[in-house]
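Students often ask why we bother encoding 3D structure as a string. The short answer is that it lets us treat folding as translation between two languages. Here is a chain of 167 residues written in the first language.
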Amino acid sequence: MNKVTTYYLEMKSPSSLNEKTESNGLDIHECEIKQYQFNKFLYQFIGGPYEWTNKLSLSDEQWKAHVENDNLRTWLAQYKGAPAGYYELQKQDNGNVEILYFGLATKFIGQGFGGYLLSHAIKSAWAWGKTKRVWVHTCTLDHPHALQNYKARGMEVYRVETDEHEP
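And here it is in the second language, the structure alphabet:
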């Protein structure tokens, strides 16, 4: 067993965003046609190196229900036609929008894409009608620069938890 620390971050005003505006050629598009198989692929492709395992046991019906829900939206980031990253936003009660999943494919880490993709995710969350708060969680299993990227964009830690984790 290893100890894993989870950081919960939030942003309570769109004016708090410290936007990175240089795309470095990264193209980001919303996946307006929902396909649970694609979200499942992205979850495994992007999250595999970081032990994203919570959803791997879901049935196709559960994946479909998750992805096709009106409270979930997905964006794909591409570089030169290749999938470079993605994010999912989930609208919750009381004006909360969670950046549910966010990440870059291993091949595209270190190319200056993370800050731009995260800025896009935060702006998209604020643009999703009546948003009052944008939040996300990350942990020590994630990329070592993930927490710093969230903070650099203007998100603030509001809770920290440490638990045992079985690899």
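Translate back mentally: The chain has one domain: 2-165. Keep this in mind for the problem set.
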